[in-house]
Amino acid sequence: MDNIKNLLASVKDGKVSVEDALRKLKHLPYEDMTFAKVDHHRHLRQGVPEVIFASGKTDKQVLTIARAMHIKSGSFLITKASKKIYNSLKIKEAVFYPDSEIIAVGEEKKKTGNILILTAGTSDIPAAEEAAVTASFLGSKVETVYDVGVAGLHRLMDASAQLQNARVIVVAAGMEGALPSVVGGMTDKPIIAVPTSTGYGVSLGGLTALFAMLNSCVPGIAVMNIDNGFGAGCLAHKINTLRQSIV
Fold it and tell me: Which of 62, 72, 90, 214 has its CA 20 to 30 A from that of 165?
């Protein structure tokens, strides 16, 4: 804290420029909790704050980290969360999204741009919702169109206006993972493909969809890890707001 006070005093006295102070603030220490080192300044460096991945952590660890982040910034996002964790938080403004298993506090109110999120099937919605909630939390306007897979492409045709208006498109698909390639052949917008673990035996928990997306003949498709809607939401938000940051 003394370092911050000295830095701010130097800015006030004109000894350090605002730009130099910002560079120094980007590398301030984290909060050491022994079991976790919470990076409160990640949003300043990366444009996306540190997010709590609940899977593999005890409920107590998740709650301790979340409350620390809430004290510092008034906001946090928890992925792979449970209703039990939500109920234990006892933070009035917290919102639990069951489809995506996300808990959010302090969502950005002002939305910008336009992210379109598609799914091949209804079973792909959890990954898509994780992307949607994440991007919206960060401040992107999000639109969703679900269940428009390749077994009935006429359903996708009805979304042509949304495809045209989107700044970036997220496509979640399991089974054979073909939908991102189809969408990529219809639009010049950046596409983020999310393979899901939906499917029978040789879907191999999403590996078949992952390999199909990585081998797409459509150039320029970015592919996330299996079921990683969170990663897709972050990347989509960064692309969606890129023009704004450049300006």
Answer: 214
